[in-house]
């Protein structure tokens, strides 16, 4: 009997790379999911089972978990990966878009977790791997709402890890730094659409966009999706998976720097970065 791995958001990026890596492990039966199942043809060819899943839709969520449970008994490993960044300043970003982002990044993750837990508890084991972000440990300007969603994932993951440990369920949080996927383009697109070009934050938004583009195109600062997939595989297979995995050397330095510097000193560091990007 294999372990069923259910991954959200595998149409591209980290989710796709994780599915491709896990499908090579004979211990696993991988369920790769996406809103548009047409994007999953190559994952099906690689050996994954593919299902349609929009993590914001209850009918879709319940159907996917019921399908995996009917075929495999229980979900063995849930990888909550689906997510994106709704960027823009706190004042100008439309809250409808922010709510949609929270529906995906936070409530989608929370509800998928709620749906798989009864089966995992009954089985007496299971793993939940949440894809958070280094952005759950520090905040960049014009990203407050995205960071808020990832801070929420940090809190939920910490509570969950404690709550479900007595049932044999292990919980890990993956905190990637800058990863070269579709994420950067989506974030830049939402940032560009978040405010009028002549508004009070126009200069800040332009600088943030430039800074984002420069950082994602730097091989020193960013990494490919496979770097995160490798860490997800470790969290899915290690006897004692870690509570947190910061991914990329640059992210480790930044998280450490934020911990060492107080809020004011970190603001000063950011001002320097923004000045050089401007
Ligand atoms: N790339 C980075 O720099 C970075 C850094 C830290 C954390 N992360 C996190 O890593 C995760 C994966 O992002 P990525 O970098 O791989 O970006 P990506 O290539 O844009 O992938 C995001 C995935 O999420 C899916 N998704 C979005 N809304 C969904 C919904 N309602 N239901 C189901 N799937 C949905 C997308 O599907 P569609 O194709 O249907 O849109 C896509 O498959 C996210 O949680 C992100 O916050 C990324």
Quick summary:
With 278 residues, the protein is α/β, with parallel strands linked by helices. The chain has helices at residues 13-22, 41-45, 58-72, 95-123, 144-164, 183-192, 202-217, 225-237, 249-260, 263-277; strands at 3-7, 28-34, 49-52, 77-80, 126-131, 169-176, 178-180, 222-224, 244-247.
Describe the overall structure:
This protein has a seven-stranded parallel β-sheet with strand order 3-2-1-4-5-6-9, sandwiched between helices. Helix 1 crosses helix 8 and helix 4 (95-123) packs parallel to helix 5 (144-164). The protein is α/β, with parallel strands linked by helices and 278 residues long. The chain is globular. Helix content is 53%, strand content 16%. It has a single domain (3-277), classed as 3-Layer(aba) Sandwich (Rossmann fold). It binds NADP nicotinamide-adenine-dinucleotide phosphate. Residues 8-9, 11-15, 34-36, 53-56, 81-84, 104, 131, 133, 176, 178-179, 181-183, 186, 225 line the site of NADP nicotinamide-adenine-dinucleotide phosphate.
CATH third-tier fold name: Rossmann fold
| CATH architecture label | 3-Layer(aba) Sandwich
Rg result: 19 Å
Strand content: 15-25%
Broad CATH class: Alpha Beta
- Uncertain residue ranges: none
CATH superfamily: NAD(P)-binding Rossmann-like Domain
Main sheet specs: 7 strands, parallel
Question: Oligomerization state of this entry?
Answer: single chain
Number of structural domains: 1
Element-level helix/strand string: EHEHEHEHEHEEHHEHEHH
Which structural class fits the helix and strand makeup? alpha/beta
The best one-word shape is globular
Helix content: 40-55%
Number of helices, where a helix is a run of at least 4 consecutive DSSP H or I residues: 10
């Amino acid at each position: 009997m294999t372990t069923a791995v259910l991954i959200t958001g595998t149409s591209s990026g980290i989710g796709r790379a994780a599915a491709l890596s896990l499908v090579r492990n004979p211990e696993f039966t991988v369920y790769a999911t996406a809103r548009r199942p047409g994007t999953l043809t190559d994952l099906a060819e690689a050996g994954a089972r593919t299902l349609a899943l929009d993590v914001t839709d209850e009918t879709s969520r319940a159907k996917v978990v019921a399908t995996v449970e009917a075929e495999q008994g229980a979900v063995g490993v849930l990888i909550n990966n689906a997510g994106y960044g709704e960027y823009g300043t706190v004042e100008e970003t439309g809250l409808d878009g922010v709510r949609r982002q929270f529906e995906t990044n936070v409530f989608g993750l929370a509800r998928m977790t709620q749906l798989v837990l009864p089966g995992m508890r009954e089985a007496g084991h299971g793993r939940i791997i949440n894809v958070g972000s280094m952005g759950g440990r520090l905040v960049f300007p014009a990203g407050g709402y995205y960071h808020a969603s990832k801070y929420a994932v940090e809190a939920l993951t910490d509570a969950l890890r404690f709550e479900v440990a007595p049932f044999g369920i292990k919980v890990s949080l993956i905190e990637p730094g800058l990863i070269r996927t579709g994420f950067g383009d989506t974030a830049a697109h939402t940032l560009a659409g978040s405010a009028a070009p002549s508004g009070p934050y126009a200069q800040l938004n332009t600088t943030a966009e430039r800074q984002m583009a420069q950082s994602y195109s730097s091989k020193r600062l960013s990494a490919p999706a496979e770097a995160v997939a490798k860490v997800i595989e470790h969290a899915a297979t290690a006897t004692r998976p870690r509570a947190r995995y910061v991914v990329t050397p640059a992210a480790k330095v930044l998280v450490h720097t934020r911990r060492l510097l107080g809020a004011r000193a970190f603001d000063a560091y950011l001002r320097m970065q923004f000045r050089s990007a401007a």
